[in-house]
From TrEMBL:
GO terms for biological process: nucleoside metabolic process. GO terms for cellular component: cytoplasm. Keywords: Glycosyltransferase, Transferase. The purine nucleoside phosphorylases catalyze the phosphorolytic breakdown of the N-glycosidic bond in the beta-(deoxy)ribonucleoside molecules, with the formation of the corresponding free purine bases and pentose-1-phosphate. Pathway: Purine metabolism; purine nucleoside salvage. Signal peptide: none annotated. Belongs to the PNP/MTAP phosphorylase family. SUPFAM superfamilies: Purine and uridine phosphorylases (SSF53167). NCBIfam families: PNPH (TIGR01700), PNPH-PUNA-XAPA (TIGR01697), PRK08202.1 (NF006054). Residues 24-271 form the Nucleoside phosphorylase domain. Its EC number is 2.4.2.1. This is Purine nucleoside phosphorylase. GO terms for molecular function: purine-nucleoside phosphorylase activity.
């Protein structure tokens, strides 16, 4: 596994030639959370299969395109569809778009995902501001030979999520009367859902929610010194003593139903920063 300057340069040059002009904010949209892209003004679209060295989104409910345009007066680049280890990609593939968005010029990164609630005080349809995370994906996107060519090998993770943006988002949620929890996100490989014993383990480890994404992107964003905000939409309740079989379609529907609140939070935060 090797990352090269040539790859990043070709990807960036292609997008610039399409009109991706110095975006200020990068946004990664998770499962069932693609509608924010519909609100981008004067969008320019680049499909992943046209961008040099980009992987392809293989999950049926991830659309697989990068958009550039204006959102609340700020130039943004939006990933509509992300990549996961469970699709057969490696951590370099999963995080490559973050490096490209950084090369395009983003100064802040917004991430969303759909996750299961481990904390039983949290309910379906709640949102959670990620304050910290547990990496259970069995690897690091920084574990490659020439990583030092792109930043420090040993990246500090004492505060992986930007506290200032987090405080602003909590204030906005209170003002808008939107329920926004705070907690720890555990990232697993998937694609299978967890067993009862695994949910108990995650709770013991201190996780409030579990999902299959986000952490690799956050590690790379810290490598690039990009301030990050991340929000989970909680789509199912992971109570090992009363565990129900998960309906993926229901998860998508809950994410879509909650999405307008997430868009509202992101919109108001973008206005402020």
């Amino acid at each position: 596994m090797r990352l090269t300057e040539k790859q990043l340069q070709e990807s960036t040059e292609y997008l610039k030639s399409k009109g991706f002009d110095n975006p200020e904010i990068g946004i990664v949209l998770g499962t069932g959370l693609g509608k924010l892209a519909d609100e981008i003004e004067n969008p320019v679209v680049a499909h992943y299969n046209h961008i040099p060295f980009f992987p392809l989104a293989t999950v049926e409910f991830h659309t697989g395109k990068l958009l550039f345009g204006t959102f609340e007066g700020k130039k943004v680049v939006v990933m509509q569809g992300r990549f996961h280890l469970y699709e057969g990609y490696d951590l370099m593939d999963v995080t490559y778009p973050i490096r490209v968005m950084h090369r395009l010029g983003i100064q802040k990164l917004f991430i969303s995902n759909a996750a299961g609630a481990i904390n039983l005080d949290f309910k379906k349809g709640d949102m959670m501001l990620i304050e910290d995370h547990i990496n259970l994906q069995g690897g690091s996107p920084l574990a490659f030979k020439n990583v030092a060519e792109f930043g420090d090998r040993f990246v500090d993770m004492a505060e992986p999520y930007d506290a200032d943006m987090g405080k602003k988002l909590m204030t906005i949620a209170k003002k808008e009367n939107i329920s926004l929890r705070k907690g720890v996100y555990a990232s697993v490989v998937g694609p299978q859902l967890e067993t009862r014993a695994e949910y108990r383990m995650l709770k013991t480890l201190g996780a409030d929610a579990v999902g299959m994404s986000t952490v690799p992107e956050v590690i790379v964003a810290n490598h690039l010194r990009l301030p990050i905000i991340a929000v989970s939409v909680l789509t199912d309740e992971c109570d090992p003593d009363n565990l129900q079989a998960v309906n993926i379609q229901e998860i998508i529907e809950i994410a879509e139903k909650t999405e307008p609140k997430m868009v509202k939070l992101f919109r108001e935060l973008i206005k402020e920063i």
